[in-house]
Write a structure and sequence with these properties.
Blueprint lengths: L1 H21 L18 E2 L3 E4 L1 E22 L5 E6 L6 E2 L4 E5 L2 H44 L4 H40 L2 E3 L4 E6 L6 E2 L6 E15 L11 E6 L4 E10 L9 E8 L9 E16 L4 E3 L2 E7 L5 E5 L1 E6 L2 E6 L6 E5 L9 E2 L2
Parallel strand pairs: 1-21
Antiparallel strand pairs: 2-20, 3-10, 3-14, 4-6, 4-9, 5-8, 6-7, 8-10, 10-13, 11-12, 11-14, 12-13, 14-19, 15-16, 16-17, 16-20, 18-19
Helix pairs in contact: 2-3
């Protein structure tokens, strides 16, 4: 019995005391209450209110084109003897561009002249035969009336006369063809000098001295200023954009902004794309053709716009840091629409009047407080 008592005192009692201590029996009681977490305060953040804009600036892509463009070629074949211009030169109408070596053309002209002389000699011979046959024909015709020759003899003479007459007509046609050939070959001599069809810039040169120029091959490309920007607009703008209107234009590669005056509006809408073409004359005369351009038009529309620098991108998602009424930062995912200059349209996720972080995005954290 004493052993059992000792066992209870030395084993059960300590275990019971440990359990009571762990249960907090020997600790002072703390009344229950709400524990408020301490929030991190972030400094150096600038915010901006989300505003509804009644007028939006829309961007459309376009291309700069010249008023006129000519691909200069030649109608005669020969070696290039002189190239009087280089790419980038401004040329006047009638100015010499390229001279083709005329020696081959002159040789063809001389050959054509000899053909004309030979055809004229054949004509003289045919004319002499015709006149002799005509005299014989007229004499036999009188003799036939007098009965001095038989009809068979007259028919033979008449056939010879008709043959001489046909030969004369054929030789005359041959002379005319030889003369036309001479005129055509002689005209080729004038094509040996290629001159500018209008005032403009040389934008491409495809030949050098010594190259062979072939008929139809493009030797030079000229562009005539002033330059225009051509762009497509959705059909909802039809009737709203008219000749005389001014639009803002930005040449992206040149980082240059200018204006353009609408000079032509396509009178019909493309049924497949639901767009129509507009041409506007650029105010900046130093722009050349082929540049990518952005054209900006204003449109009345109630939309939410935020600065592009306020957009926080995480993986394939787009979000903004929103400052709630109590100053707490929250990351909110949004759906974006069109880009309009330095701003972007918000389709969903934000409401008018909410504040978003526009500077210091790298400092923002979810649940933090915005300081001062």
């Amino acid at each position: 019995m004493k052993a059992v008592f000792r066992y209870g005192v030395f084993l059960i009692l300590p275990v019971t005391l440990v359990i009571l201590w762990l249960a907090g029996v020997f600790h002072p009681k703390i009344s229950a209450g709400e524990v408020k977490p301490e929030r991190k305060v972030v400094e150096g953040i600038r915010t901006e209110k989300v505003m509804v804009h009644s007028e939006s600036l829309l961007s459309f892509t376009g291309t700069t084109v010249p008023s006129d463009r000519a691909e200069v070629s030649t109608r005669t074949m020969g070696f290039v003897g002189e190239v009087a211009v280089k790419e980038g030169d401004f040329v006047k109408k009638g100015q010499l561009l390229i001279r083709i070596d005329p020696r081959d053309t002159r040789a063809r002209i001389e050959a054509a002249r000899r053909q004309v002389l030979q055809a004229q000699k054949r004509l003289e011979a045919a004319l002499a035969r015709y006149r002799a046959a005509e005299k014989t024909y007229n004499r036999y015709r009188e003799l036939l009336k007098e009965g001095a020759v038989t009809p068979q003899e007259f028919d033979t003479v008449e056939a010879q006369f008709r043959s001489a007459q046909a030969e004369l007509e054929a030789v005359r046609a041959g002379v005319e063809m030889a003369k036309q050939n001479l005129r055509a070959v002689s005209a080729g001599l004038s094509y040996a000098e290629i001159r500018a069809p209008f005032d403009g810039y040389v934008v491409r040169k495809n030949v050098d001295v010594g190259d062979m120029a072939a008929p139809g091959a493009v030797l030079l490309v000229l562009e005539k200023p002033p330059y225009r920007v051509e762009f497509e607009l959705p059909e909802r703008f039809y009737g709203k954009v008219k000749p005389g209107d001014r639009v803002a234009v930005r040449i992206e590669s040149l980082r240059r902004e200018t204006t353009a005056e609408v000079v032509e509006v396509e009178p019909s809408v493309d049924p497949s794309a639901r767009t129509f073409r507009v041409k506007a004359l650029l105010k900046d005369r130093s722009v050349r053709g082929g540049f990518f351009a952005r054209v900006y038009l204003k449109e009345e529309d109630r939309i939410l716009l935020i600065p592009r620098k306020a957009v926080y991108r995480k993986w394939d998602l787009t979000a903004v840091w929103v400052v709630e009424e109590d100053g707490v930062l929250r990351l909110r995912f949004v759906r974006l629409g069109r880009e309009m200059g330095d701003r972007v349209e918000v389709l969903s996720g934000l409401s008018e009047g909410e504040r978003v972080v526009v500077e210091g995005l790298e400092k923002a954290c979810d649940g933090c407080l915005v300081g001062g």
